[in-house]
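cron nightly-structures :: item 1 of 1
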Amino acid sequence: MGMSRSWLLVLVIAISEPGFGQSEAGQSNAGLREIRIDAGKVVGTIRSFQGVNGVPTPIMAGLPNLEQQYRALHVDVIRTHDTMGPTDIDATYSVDNPLLAWLVPDTAQRAKLVNAANAAAIFPDWNADPEKPQSYNFGPTDRVIDGIRATGAKVYYRIGRSWGADFTKLPDLDKFAAVVKHIAMHYNRGWAHGLQNAVEYWEFWNEEDTPLFWTETPETFYQLYEKSARALKEVDSSLKVGADAKAFGYGDGPYREGLLDYCKQRNVPLDFYSWHHYTMDSADPYDFNRIGDEIRKMMDAHGYSNAQSVLSEWNLTPDFTEPEKARLQGVVNAAFVGDVLIYLQDSTIDIAHFYRADAAWMGLFGLSGDYLKPAYTFQAMGTMLATPQRLALDGADTVGLAVLAGRSSDGNTVQILASNYEIPKNYKPRPMELPANALPKEVPMPDFSKTKSLPPRMDIKYNDNRGVRIRIEHLPWGKGGYRVQRYRLTDTENLSLVGDTTGSGDTLDISEPIAPPSVELIVVQRKHAIMP
């Protein structure tokens, strides 16, 4: 889980609620935005950013198995963070840990979680021999990895500790690296009755720039990463290794520039650099592009132009507490997610993992596996991957009204994804304070107010965004017939079918005055290609 400085379809049109943004007074009946799409001009390939945190198998009692839902959303890469035991190498948990109690307030549920988590540690006894299979407890993690693979997604393995684990000192670094090596052997080379080629990405630690996950020095982290990265490459040089899931992606320092300097000087493998961002400070969905640009420049300047930039946690806010639940689970966040997924298409970011997708805190699903509002946006974006040929368009912007259009490889389908979101007028983040005694007495709480944060954009103004007038030109079937289907996501509708019409010709005009916030999904199909 991540932090922000304050704390600590298809056509999809997602528009924030009335009076929610910085629109001019009296704009409720303002003109619609004109969007022009050239269905005959391919300008690239639609990129998938359907990565998530939160594994599909339940991490504690009472949560559903979500393998089917993940497939429906086209989730294609899953980060194994905050699995609460499985995939954690050396973490231990206590019922009275303040951070864990904050996350899971119910004492009985927390006790069950602690018992299961402590029984799931991969290497439970650091006096054991890392060379011997009997030293490892692979079963719980095997089930998590199998669940991820059952969805068709890639495994992105986070090496470190989950939220609420006890603060314990790291064991011998060489031994730790040997354990990591044998875990990779188990999942990629069949060691100890394991799997073959199951895990490609290996990320080192989580938010070590905060004392919530890391209480050692930066130099210790560098050494841990170097030893473990080299050990992984001994197993398979094609494995992708990287670090360091930095909590404050925009902030420079030892866990950003310092880490890259160390790796460059010692020729340490670094296939990707990972970082986090939540927009608690700004509620601006374009933040990720702006930070991504800075990180890409920083990586290039350090000689890592071929390394990937991985946004391994993102969301509107990291606040999992009750006051934010309605915003996280509702159509406002669905609109925000829609904007981000479209804006990422033109970002310098290579992989992104939403935090988080399962039915735990901040998830996309309810306790019975039912979809929450943002899940429908991910579903719509997943549908866009069926029309991967990205089409030229005009009329969108980077302040809220984002649009994406695609065409299928056979030319029989055109889809458009647009998302229109407004930052709340006079937005101010809600303070979120850590529980008392969250850190050990010997670990001082840093002053997060001094952390470098992304300056907010001051020129955001919303115009003509109460809906859209779309013209699609040069439809690939010429003068032939077509079918247009429209699905809508609002506060009361969940991508419900709201229109099903037919027409003909190589040009299509659609006018949609849609009350915000909403999501609309439009699929245009060549008539003879429609299944009966």
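cron nightly-structures :: done
The longest helix spans residues 218-235.
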